[in-house]
Design brief:
The complex is a heterodimer of chains A (about 400) and B (about 270). Chain A is of the alpha+beta class and about 400 residues long. Chain A has 3 helices and 28 strands. Chain A folds into 3 domains: about 40-60 and about 265-365, no CATH class; about 60-155 and about 190-260, no CATH class; about 370-400. The chains are: A alpha+beta (about 400), B mainly beta (about 270).
Chain lengths: ~400, ~270
C-alpha cells in the first residue's frame, strides 16, 4: 500500500472520528448522566405492615402521640398501673366463656375498697405482665391516651399485628377478604421513661396477667390472669400506666383514616420497611410493603416528572445519613396496613427485589438536566455549538482541498 | 512531527481511556451493594448441638408451646458460664431438647442433636457453654430463655396440637430440691380467647384441678400458664387450652401432657 493512500485513509478515519465525536461525547455524557443519581427532594407514600425508625426530633417537645382516641389499649412489660375508683368487681376465671367473651353475672364479685385506689404491679421476670383496657362492650365508646413523649434518638417500630391465623382474615396478602368491621390494632414497640395516662369515659374492663393487685391493704391478690370491671367515679377517670425498664409494646386501635401521630413534624432517620422471614438462618428479610396498596415516590421539585411506583416486593434502602419528616401516619382498613407519608432528600434511595435487581428511586442527573430549563438551554447550546463547529471546520477544509 | 496515523492512534487511545473512566464512574456507584456480616452467631452445628440465631421461629399452628419448665428461679440469675437443663422421665424414652429466647432474643435457638434415649429418673441432664452464643447475644437472665423437652416428636419449627413433654429445670449451678410448680409459655398465632385447665390423667372423673382464663391474647405475644403443683399427686397431667379465634370464632385447641414428679433428687 502506498504512503499517500495510507495518509488518505488515516485522514478519513480522523475526519470520521471528528464527525462522530459530538454524537459519541453527547451519548456518553447522556448515558453517564442517566446512570448517575442525584439527591432530590421526595415525598414517599407507603402502605406498610411494619415500619421502624429512629426519632430524632419532634417539633412539639419530642411528642409522638397527642390525645389519641382508641377503641382499646394494652401494654406489655407493665411495671405499675394505678386507678382511682371505689367500684371494682373481679370475675371468676373458671366461669369465662371464650365463645361469647363474657362472664355470667354471678361470676362477678365486688371488691370492698377501704380507700379510693387500686394498683396493679407487674411481677418480675420470668413473668410476662400484661394489661389491657377496653370500654364495656354494652356501653361502647373510646378511651383517650394522653400525649406521649419519647426520648430523642429512640428506636420506634409500628406494626400491624402479624395475624396469620384467621382464615381469609387479616392476612398480609393482597385482596384479603377481611371484613371491614374488624378493627385494626397497632403495635408500637418503644422505650419510655414516663407514665402513660389512659382516660376512661365510662365503665370498662381491665384485664391483667402476671400482676399483683394492691388496694390500700384491704385487698391484695396475685393472679396469673384476672378480669376486673371498673366504674369510674367521675365522667372521665384516668389510669396511670408505667412501663418497666427496657422496650415494651403498646397496642391501640386508632380511628382509621386520620393521622394518629402528633401533628407537628417529626424528624426521623434510618427508616426500615422490612420484616424478618420466619425460620431463616442466616436471617433473611422480606418487604413490609402491603401488596396491591399504594407505594410511590413523588419528586417535589419536578412537578412534571411522573410519580414512580414502588413495587411491593422490593426492599427499600436509604443512605445512612438520610433524614425524613413524617408528614402523616394513618390506618388504612382497605389495605389492612399503615399509610405513611415521608418527605426528605436522601442522597441514595433504591429498592432491591428478590433477584437482587437494583432499582434506584432517585432522579437521574439526566432527568434533572431535562427538567431544569437553564441546564436544558446550556446543554442544548453546547451540543449545537460543538456540532456546528465541527461541521464548519470540515466544510472549510473540504472547500480548501477542493 | 507525528504522522496522521500516529495522531489518530493517540486520539483513539485517549478516547478509550476516557470511555473506560466514564464506564467506571457509571458502574461504581451501582456496585458494592452486597454487604457481609459476621456469621459466628448463625444457627450452626456446635459439637453435639445446633445453636445460634434463627429469624423468629414460627410453627404456623394456632398456638405454639414455647417453653415447659419447672417454676424455679436460681438465686443468682445472672448468666453463668454454662447452663443446664435437667428433666424427669417416668420410664426410659427418646426426647428432643430445645431451648429458645422467650423474654429476650426471640431469635435464639438451641437444639440438642440427635434426639437420644434418656434414662428414667431425674438425672437426665444436658449442659452447654454460654460463651459461644448466649453471652454474645447479651441474654442477661437465665429465665429470659425457655426450654421444651418433647417426648412425642422431634421439635423443629412445628409442634403438634397434642404434645407430651418433660418439664425442665433450667439452671446454672443450683438445683431445687423439689418441683413445686410449672411454667408453660405459649404464643398464639392470632387474636385468641382461651381457657387453660389442668386435669389429672388418672382421675378422669375429677374435673379441672386448675383453671385460668386468657381472654385477650394477641398474635405473637407470649403468655404464661403457671400451675402451683406442690399439693398435686405424682402422675400424669393434662393441660388443655381451649377457645376460639377472636374474629372468626374458629376453635383453638392445644393439649400438653406432662408427668408431675415432686422430688428432684430421686
Amino acid at each position: 500500500m502506498s504512503k499517500g493512500r495510507m495518509n488518505r485513509n488515516s485522514r478519513r478515519i480522523v475526519l470520521f472520528a471528528l464527525l462522530m465525536a459530538p454524537t459519541t461525547i453527547g451519548a456518553l455524557i447522556g448515558i453517564t448522566l442517566m446512570r448517575l443519581h442525584c439527591p432530590s427532594r421526595v415525598r414517599i407514600l407507603l402502605t406498610v405492615n411494619h415500619i421502624g425508625f429512629d426519632e430524632i426530633q419532634s417539633s412539639l417537645g419530642n411528642e409522638l402521640f397527642r390525645g389519641l382516641d382508641t377503641a382499646s389499649f394494652a401494654i406489655s412489660n407493665l411495671s405499675t398501673a394505678d386507678i382511682v375508683t371505689r367500684r371494682l368487681t373481679v370475675a371468676d376465671p373458671r366461669r369465662y366463656d371464650p365463645r361469647s367473651d363474657t362472664y355470667p353475672n354471678t361470676a362477678w364479685t365486688p371488691i370492698v375498697l377501704s380507700q379510693s385506689g387500686v394498683s396493679f404491679h407487674g411481677q418480675p421476670p420470668p413473668a410476662l405482665p400484661f394489661l389491657s383496657i377496653k370500654p364495656d362492650a354494652r356501653v361502647g365508646g373510646l378511651l383517650t391516651i394522653d400525649p406521649i413523649n419519647v426520648p430523642s434518638q429512640s428506636r420506634i417500630a409500628f406494626e400491624v399485628a402479624k395475624d396469620i391465623g384467621e382464615n381469609g382474615g387479616r392476612s398480609e396478602s393482597a385482596g384479603s377478604q377481611r371484613p371491614t368491621s374488624y378493627p385494626i390494632e397497632l403495635q408500637v414497640t418503644l422505650e419510655l421513661q414516663q407514665s402513660i395516662n389512659v382516660f376512661l369515659h365510662g365503665p370498662s374492663q381491665i384485664r391483667v396477667s402476671d400482676c399483683e393487685v394492691r388496694a390500700g391493704g384491704a385487698f391484695s391478690a396475685s393472679n396469673q390472669s384476672s378480669t376486673y370491671h371498673v366504674d369510674p367515679e367521675s365522667d372521665s377517670s384516668s389510669i396511670r400506666v408505667s412501663p418497666g425498664s427496657g422496650p415494651f409494646s403498646l397496642f391501640f386501635t386508632p380511628t382509621a383514616g386520620s393521622n394518629f401521630l402528633s401533628p407537628g413534624p417529626i424528624t426521623i432517620s434510618h427508616p426500615t420497611v422490612v420484616r424478618a422471614i420466619p425460620n431463616t438462618s442466616p436471617e433473611r428479610f422480606e418487604s413490609a410493603l402491603v401488596k396491591g396498596a399504594v407505594g410511590e415516590i413523588q419528586y417535589l421539585d419536578y412537578a412534571t416528572v411522573p410519580k414512580k411506583p414502588i413495587p411491593s416486593d422490593e426492599l427499600l434502602h436509604f443512605d445512612n445519613e438520610a433524614v425524613f419528616t413524617v408528614v402523616s401516619m394513618n390506618i388504612s382498613t382497605a389495605s389492612n396496613g399503615i399509610q405513611v407519608t415521608l418527605e426528605g432528600d436522601p442522597k441514595a434511595s433504591y429498592g432491591t427485589s428478590v433477584s437482587m435487581q437494583h432499582d434506584p428511586f432517585q432522579l437521574s442527573c439526566f432527568d434533572r438536566v431535562k427538567e431544569n430549563p437553564d441546564l436544558r438551554v446550556l446543554f442544548g447550546s453546547l451540543a449545537w455549538l460543538v456540532a456546528t463547529t465541527v461541521a464548519a471546520y470540515k466544510f472549510i477544509k473540504e472547500l480548501r482541498e477542493g | 512531527m507525528l504522522s496522521i496515523a500516529t495522531r489518530s492512534g493517540y486520539v483513539w487511545t485517549v478516547l478509550t481511556k476516557v470511555t473506560r473512566i466514564m464506564l467506571l464512574v457509571v458502574i461504581l456507584p451501582s456496585g458494592g451493594l452486597a454487604g457481609s456480616s459476621g456469621h459466628d452467631l448463625d444457627y450452626q452445628k456446635r459439637g453435639d448441638r445446633w445453636e445460634g440465631i434463627v429469624a423468629p421461629k414460627e410453627s404456623g399452628n394456632d398456638i405454639e408451646l414455647l417453653s415447659a419448665i419447672v417454676d424455679y428461679e436460681e438465686p443468682a440469675t445472672a448468666m453463668p458460664d454454662s447452663l443446664a437443663i435437667r428433666f424427669f422421665l417416668s420410664k426410659p424414652s427418646p426426647a428432643s431438647l430445645t431451648v429458645r429466647g422467650v423474654r429476650a432474643q426471640p431469635h435464639y435457638w438451641m437444639k440438642v442433636l440427635p434426639p437420644k434415649q434418656w434414662k428414667s429418673g431425674f438425672f437426665n441432664e444436658y449442659r452447654w457453654a454460654t460463651a459461644e452464643v448466649i453471652r454474645k447475644l447479651d441474654i442477661a437472665n437465665i429465665y429470659d430463655l425457655g426450654a421444651v423437652v418433647s417426648l412425642t416428636q422431634d421439635l423443629e419449627v412445628t409442634d403438634a396440637v397434642d404434645v407430651e413433654v418433660a418439664p425442665v429445670i433450667l439452671y446454672g449451678s443450683k438445683l431445687p430440691t423439689s418441683a413445686d410448680g410449672y411454667r408453660f409459655t405459649f404464643k398464639p398465632i392470632t387474636y385468641e380467647k382461651l381457657t387453660c385447665k389442668i386435669y389429672e390423667e388418672n382421675s378422669p372423673q375429677r374435673g379441672a384441678i386448675f383453671s385460668v382464663a386468657r381472654p385477650d391474647l394477641r398474635p405473637g405475644v407470649p403468655f404464661d400458664v403457671v400451675w402451683p403443683s406442690s399439693l398435686a399427686n405424682e402422675g400424669w397431667y393434662r393441660l388443655e387450652l381451649k377457645g376460639v379465634k377472636s374474629f372468626s370464632n374458629q376453635p383453638v385447641d392445644k393439649v400438653v401432657r406432662f408427668f408431675n414428679h415432686k422430688l428432684v433428687n430421686k
